[in-house]
Amino acid sequence: MSVNKDLFETVLTYPDPAMQARYAALCGLDEVQAHLSKEAETLLRPDLLEKWSKDHHGTHLPAIDLLRRRPPLIIFAGDVGTGKTELAMTFADPLARAMDLEIELFNLSLRARGSGAVGEMTRLISNAFAELRARCPKLPDGGRKPTGAAVLLIDEADALAQSRELAQMHHEDRAGVNALIRGIDDLANAHLPCLVIMCTNRLSALDPAVRRRAAAVFDFKRPSLVLRKKLLTDQLAGTRLTDKEITALADMLGESKGRDYGFTFSDITQRLIPAIVLAAYPHEKITGTLALRVAATIQPTPPFKAE
Ligand SMILES: Nc1ncnc2c1ncn2[C@@H]1O[C@H](COP(=O)(O)OP(=O)(O)OP(=O)(O)O)[C@@H](O)[C@H]1O
Ligand SMILES: [Mg+2]
Fold it and tell me: What is 8-220's CATH superfamily?
């Protein structure tokens, strides 16, 4: 089925082997991944909660109705380059496999933020939710498994869901936030197997009414020494760097005198490691000395300041 390019940048279908590999390459997110898969599974498959309730308590617990009524919104918040977009783009793969369902992910286009013309943002957001509702399979009655599920990804959500409290907020933006809140509520009321994921660097800037609706908020952080070591060990596998050399490198990428923050995941995967490879290419091999020398020339991205 064709997709409206004004509304969605891409529509991806899962399971997808490329996304499976990218999901597996994420490190240090085990807790988030485990919690997220439970949240997502129970939001998309209320029939499984029903079965659990009957199996373990012999009855339909009122508590599961509370879970069912929650808006299907999950927020990924935190520092730059810590895996929010990467997890959002890939988590549907293991989910689709575990639930034996096809999942479609709709990536809301930045263009959907509109050009500021009166009513445009509101119209685009309302249309995006309407298209999502139309394309998402319905939840079957009688506790049966749905035939498919959908995820709406709103990346850089603070640009869209900025607090209406901000005095300088343009009237048109406020209307856009209202449309967003309405869209999320309509999804909840329609009981569709559908999830909305919002990513943001600035949780505090999100509209309180949007935050309040979140079934879960996950906090993403820069990697600790242990995680930096794991990432370097994975990504430099085959280079024969010793454990001591990897530790020295990981240590150098942490906080230091005069700098109270270390490298982000993306500083390591997108800047440091490519720079190490290019420093060795085409005539040398990667050594611990070379890696440390390159690391000394790269500065980590400063943390995102709230205001
Ligand atoms: N936990 C992680 N494990 C391994 N690699 C990671 C992890 N987090 C990020 N990366 C690497 O960094 C790249 C950028 O990550 P991503 O785009 O998800 O960051 P982000 O949190 O969305 O940042 P921003 O807030 O700037 O949008 C990824 O493509 C991946 O290579
Ligand atoms: Mg991102």
Answer: P-loop containing nucleotide triphosphate hydrolases (3.40.50.300)
pLDDT of residue 124: 85
Closest ligand 1 atom to 266 CA? 12
**Strand-pair category, 73-78 with 216-220:** parallel
245 Cβ inside 6 Å of ligand 1: no
Question: Where along the chain do the CATH 3.40.50.300 domains lie?
Answer: 8-220
Residue nearest to atom 23 of ligand 1 (CA): 81
The alpha carbon of 185 and the centre of ligand 1 are apart by a number of angstroms equal to 30
Please give the distance, rounded to the nearest whole angstrom, from the Cα atom of residue 198 to the centre of ligand 1.
Answer: 15
Let me know: does 184 contact 192? Beta carbons within 8 Å.
no
Segment 136-176, tens digit of pLDDT: 998 887 777 888 999 999 998 887 777 766 656 666 667 88
Global pTM reads 0.93
Tell me the average pLDDT across 15-31: 96
Cα dihedral 121, 123, 129, 132 sign:
negative
